[in-house]
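Q&A FORM
Asked by: J.P.
Topic: structure of TonB-dependent receptor plug domain-containing protein

PROVIDED:
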Amino acid sequence: MKHTFYIGAVSLVLTSPVFSNEESKPPTTHKQIEQSKFVQCDTQSKSDKCGSILEVIEVRGDKINPISFSSKGRYNLNRKMIEDYRFGNGNLNEVLAILPGVQYAESAQSADQVSNIRPSEVSISGASGAQTAYLIDGVSNNSLLNDSSVTSDKNLADDVVGHSQEIFLNLELVESIEVYDSNVPAKYGAFSGGVVIADTRKIADELKAGFSFRKTADSFVKYNRFYSPTHEGRFKDEDAVFEKSAYSAYVSSPITADLSFLAQIQLLSSKESVERVGDLKIEQQENYNALLKFEYELTANDSLTLNLFHGPYSGEYFAETAKNSPYSEEGGGQKASLKWEGERSWGAFENLFVYKQSQNSKDAPPAWFVWLNQPGKALPESHYSKTFLEGGFGDIEKNQRSVLFKHDFEFSEISSNSLVHQTNVGFEYEYLYSQFNRLDDSIAFNDAVSAANINCAGYTIDCIESEYKKSLSQLEEELGRPLDFTDESDLLLYSENIIASGQYFQGRTVIPAAESEANMNKFSAYVDHEIQWQDLVVATGFRYDFNDFFKNHNVSPRFRGSYNFFDDDAQFVFGASRYYSNDGLNYKLNEAKLPTYNEYRAAFNNRVLNWQSALKNRGHRHVYEDLKTPYSDEFTLAYRHQLFGGTVELKWINRRNKDQINREKGFNDSGESILYGANSGYSQYDRYSLSWMASFDNQHVQFNVSHVKNVTDEKTFDGEARTCPDFPKCFLNFDYNTDELVFLANSNIKNASVNYEHLALVTKHDLDLVKKDFNRPIIANLSWGGRFGNWSVSSFIRYHSKQDALYNTGATESVKSASSLCDGCQPSETRYPVYSIQERPAYWLLSGSIKYSVPLVGKHTLSFSFEGENLLNKRTYQVAPFSTGLELGRRFWLGLNYSY
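REPLIED BY: S.T.
REPLY: Here is the structure written out as tokens.
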């Protein structure tokens, strides 16, 4: 009987999945009887094994590693890997870097990232961060408030810089992460990139508690400063002074035999002194994560889980290139979910009810000024520019709320005629509400005119009269003769006597106060059926999505399969699927926004006149009608093989992104300028990757290298914004708002009527497309982690190949109008910031961590940690060639952790 028990226990272990919850048979697990031996009885022995023959069984198998050995394109990160590869802020997105093909926005390595708490946007399978589906405990964490999450401009005129995620989840609260980059089951929808599923920490079956503290500061950071060839040596910019701290505490315990709970709070705060146009400013940021989770066992087969999550963030900033430009942002949100899980004879089910809300708002000065850089509005000598920027774009509040009912059913396997069938079905309904509120009118002043003798006629905020230390008559009296402006010494004397040079604005754009609301009903359903015959697995799924904004009935087929061979040591994977993008609620909000309007004024006898409406007054509206839902067609092939105790994977992914929403210029019946939404956009993504990942008793290793090509069709762009009948006198070919346009050097956006001299005037919409984020041709990663007694050590090397990158030059250039804008007005000259595309060289970075644990009394443990990034102090080439700027070098965190 005892002999039978031992064999049964081993059989139970062998039937458990080796590569996590897989559909296919786990490979490289072998049972082998090594030896049988007779145990000699001793007269003093109390062993009941005396005289019996023991069968010694050795089980060999591979440890769990991130590569899923199934037909799905899934990678799994457990708690051990999360702890080993937590560097920097410890945000969810940061740990994804070890996986093949994952890329980050350029801002991930910018100098201000060292103090920033906002996670860098991440790209999976070539899509932007907003097109990746994020789920926390099965609940969507995607923000639908705007599509400006990767914009090159942080200080937007008519929006708030958002993020693809509502809440910035910290890794301290995460138990495991699943990432899909291809062959995504029909259960998941509303994405065209990848899927990231984070499960929060498990509730302990006994009392556990702990707290941790991590800190970094300017003394822990090596800054690398670079100067342009024309930079004057007497101007030396100081390094930032900052400190950033992370606090975390948790407690988890059973309350009764059936009820248990977990409470955890995490705070990340940052304070930094930064140089902003010659002034030292203090920027502050905070991010909270608070989780309260209850689990109740209703019966042996049913359980309830209540999750309450609070995750606000806030920041106080200053515009990088403007004076007197403070602005603050608030975001984040709250979620409440109730989940009922059950098992029945026919299978298992999961019912989920969710309520969540989030916000994204900013407070800023109500007026933006583009002055001429001259006395009275002069930049420091170390900051050369033709313009002096000042102010902000006003206050904006955005809110999002939703209610979700979701039901998933997983039916038990059915065997029939050598075939094994397994079916999953589910459906969900969601109601979404969003609100945009510009609290007051905001005014953007442009087209400044220099006028030494101007009389401002009582206008104080948008006009400056000339001011001198001494009157000109007094100066000439002291000189004993009239000033001669052809004489260099007289000209210098006159210049040094100026306190302020007269200038005034003859043009301004008014962004009217407005409030708009939008709501949407969404319904989804799916079925996923998998058939296994011997070593072949084929899965076919369909997903249906509908919402009452686009009113499209979208059916997305999902097909995937795998075939195991070489005694389950090898696997071939194939798939073809369609993924429909998220129908952004921001489109509906944009439709409700009021257009801007322009005002102009002239000067008569050196006296400014009153503001008057422009002859062509209105800006533009947005209209989205009869649009198809953008989608991505995917084809993928992969080969996996068990090698050297791990899994090697060769993978090809092709994505063809069709019916992408672009913008087409036009007019409605009332003559208003309209940006119509259209489905002419197209892009294509190809990735080839080679990966090898393995886990051993106390170590794990991951290596991957990916070659990527991401191409966007010309029809996706707005194109050149000017027409120039008599260059350099030009006019805009559409009623774009002034804040929407920038100059771009070295781009492929051309127009025959414009004598470019390497500059194109483009929209910020096009700028984000040109930016080439998430499009490095080659990315390679090598990561390793190990635990040796009380020591834990990890390292991570990431290689970035060279690429064309977008740089903000800090300069401005003007567009001169072909005619006057009003009677008495001078020809208009509107200035726009200049960006440039230049090659960024290849570079690689080494990060690493060391942790040491000290056992205390009983179950009490104290741990010390060191986590470093860019340990070899390599360049990241964030500073453009021949420019002045700051790059991050070596930096590290120190930490202390107590657990019970």
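FOLLOW-UP: DSSP finds six helices and 52 strands in the chain.
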